[in-house]
Amino acid sequence: MKLTIAAAVLLVFALPALAQEPKPNCKNPITQMEMTYCEEQELNAADKILNVEYQKARKAMKTWDADAEANLKGAEDALVKAQRAWVAYRDAQCASYGYQARGGSMEPQLIYGCQADLTRKRTAELKELTEIMGN
Question: Which domains does the chain have, with CATH numbers?
Answer without folding.
Answer: 24-132 (1.20.1270.180)
